[in-house]
């Protein structure tokens, strides 16, 4: 049974837009359903069925005997509060996920980035962020960070504190702080892996 009678774009914003679906329930009755998308009207995923990722999350560790995980504590407007996350961002046109990760990590933290390509590819494929309200997909990129912390390339809308966290600090953050879900799952892997990338194998 068809689940929608049509989709209409309701807003015209550069970064994110609201769409209305004239939806059908399991009994064939009409109801209104709304979702947000970063995609243009002809590229929303219910039309294209694409799995191309809009964004990336970056699992970066320091090159030390006991590596630390690169975290950020960032102010988020919808929460009017700070939240712990892994660095992340959008993939620009023509970029690979790895290239986007290197650019975003530099912009958000000042660190250079070397991608780790070992392990199984399934951990790098795109997954949906929150399909109840958006069609956005995101992929994880793994690697090592080098250099010095800097906020010089942060945008005016970004308020970011960079944290290098060992396993004890990551566990404390998970236990007591506000944390993004995709960050939390990768932080759990960091805590429980014998080496930073062991869970990819």
Walk me through what this model shows.
With 201 residues, the chain is of the alpha+beta class. The protein is 19% helix and 34% strand. It contains 4 helices and 11 strands, in the order βββαββββαββββαα. It has helices at 45-48, 97-109, 167-176, 181-192; strands spanning 4-9, 17-24, 30-37, 55-62, 69-76, 81-85, 88-90, 112-115, 127-128, 137-146, 160-165. The strands form 3 sheets. Strands 4, 7, 8, 9 and 10 form a 5-stranded mixed beta sheet that branches. α3 packs antiparallel against α4. The chain starts with a strand and ends in a 9-residue tail after the last helix.
List keywords for this structure.
alpha+beta, 201 residues, 4 helices, five-stranded mixed sheet
- Which H/E pattern describes the elements? EEEHEEEEHEEEEHH
The counted number of beta strands is 11
Number of helices: 4
N/C terminus separation = 41 Å
Helical content (DSSP H or I, runs of 4+) = 10-25%
**Which structural class matches the secondary elements?**
alpha+beta
Query: What integer is the average pLDDT?
Result: 96
- Please summarize the sheet with the most strands: 5 strands, mixed
Give me the Rg, rounded.
19 Å
Query: What sort of overall outline do the alpha carbons produce when their principal axes are compared?
Result: elongated
What percentage of the residues does DSSP assign to strands (E)? 25-35%
Question: Uncertain runs with pLDDT below 50, 5 residues or more?
Answer: none
